[in-house]
Write a structure and sequence with these properties.
By secondary structure, the chain is α/β, with parallel strands linked by helices. The chain contains eleven helices and 14 strands. It has helices at about 15-20, 45, 85-95, 110-120, 135-140, 165-175, 210-230, 255-260, 280-295, 325-335, 350-360; strands at about 1-5, 25-35, 60, 70-75, 100-105, 125-130, 150-155, 180-185, 230-235, 265-270, 300, 305, 320, 340-345. α6 (about 165-175) packs across α11. It starts with a strand and ends in a 7-residue tail after the last helix.
């Protein structure tokens, strides 16, 4: 089993580290970040304010005193931005140590060529991980939506950074543990290391019409159902449900609109930030999910992340604040909203059982 290290680490990749046993044929050995991000020399759990996380110490990738105890460096996306100069310096440093790299970080063609050139000079291997799906699989001669008979659990978020990916992983692991066969389409390329399906690349291609993306995604899920015969399918919905403001529009919820027109979930989790919640806000969210996406929300997940109010309604990117797990539990107790159950990190098992019970109530879910 090869040793793998992760860079650049921040809370974006926390779910993968918390569930490192999902990594196929890899043993997580080291975690690297950058000075100035507030992560270096802290443990993963302390840096991300999550006491259920690992006590692996986060190290500076450029610290010459640190020994590289890994075979492969995995370069992934992060919430913090990293410039080209730092990225190339990191790649060159690792290449000179004769370490291979895997890359799932979103890069343009020029960045990929530059990284390949650095590695070619040092006679080491680089592999880019992307979800390239054959069009033969997803293009039918007839433009129609196929019925998906397998129960579907969807996990969406009112905005970015609402722990969607972590919720998917928690449901996935608990279903597998209880003997269910699970197929999972996530929004992240990291799932290729876990043997599951990231969001296919065609969903990001501007040359493909919105109508065609809906049809292709539906055919993609149908192909997974026919090939894998799962007991349940988990779908992670990338992006936000709606823009934050006229200055911070995101993607207007377009990907969510496409996916929810392609498939109808049997159980839907909506993830929200941990601040600014009350009954009136939840009522409006559930109505928006129903009228905009034709989705009935079964439960709300209160994330450990909130938007920094001082960063809103500006042209600059939104900043986020992390909270510990007890804060979200307290927040739920203060909302007192009975129309839709709420869960958080401290109640993952209850969320899982609620989902399973509801699907069993539909006679949709059974261990094959």
């Amino acid at each position: 089993m090869k040793k793998i290290a992760i860079f650049p680490f921040d809370y974006y990749l926390l779910p993968v580290i918390k569930n490192k046993d999902n990594l196929l044929d890899f043993q997580l050995s080291q975690v690297f970040s950058l000075q100035g991000w507030g992560m270096v020399n802290d443990t993963v759990s302390a840096a991300c304010k999550d006491d259920t996380a690992e006590d692996i110490v986060v190290m500076d990738i450029f610290d010459e005193s640190v020994d590289f105890d890994f075979d492969i460096l995995y370069i992934t996306n992060s919430n913090h931005k990293i410039g080209n100069d730092l990225l190339y310096r990191c790649v060159e440093r690792v290449a000179k140590k004769q370490k291979n790299i895997l890359v799932s970080k979103k890069l343009n063609t020029e960045q990929m060529k530059q990284i390949e050139a650095i590695y070619k000079q040092n006679n080491v291997h680089v592999q880019f991980l992307y979800a390239d799906v054959s069009t033969d699989i997803i293009n039918d001669t007839v433009e129609m939506l196929h019925s998906i008979d397998t129960p579907i659990i969807s996990v969406s978020g009112v905005d970015e950074n609402t722990n969607k990916f972590e919720v998917q992983l928690e449901l996935y692991n608990r279903l597998k543990k209880d003997g269910y066969s699970v197929s999972w389409v996530s929004s992240r390329n990291e799932m290729l290391l876990c043997g599951e399906h990231p969001l296919p690349d065609f969903m990001f291609q501007t040359s493909i019409s919105e109508t065609q993306k809906i049809l292709m995604y539906n055919h993609f899920v149908k192909f997974i159902e026919e090939q894998e015969s799962p007991d349940v399918i988990i779908l992670g919905i990338p992006g936000e449900m709606m823009p934050n403001s006229k200055l911070q529009v995101g993607h207007f919820g377009t990907t969510a609109f496409q996916i929810f027109n392609a498939v109808n979930p049997d159980f839907s989790v909506l993830c929200v930030h941990c601040n600014g919640n009350n009954g009136d806000y939840f009522d409006r969210l559930l109505q928006a999910m129903e009228y905009k996406f034709s989705v009935e929300t079964d439960c709300i997940y209160i994330s450990s992340i909130s938007k920094d109010p001082f960063s809103l309604n500006k042209i600059t990117p939104i900043e986020y604040v992390l909270y510990n797990n007890d804060f979200t539990t307290t927040a739920i107790s203060q909302i007192a909203y009975d129309s839709c159950p709420q869960f958080d990190r401290n109640t993952y098992e209850k969320l899982y059982q609620f989902a399973v019970d509801k699907l069993h109530g539909y006679d949709d879910l059974q261990v094959m």
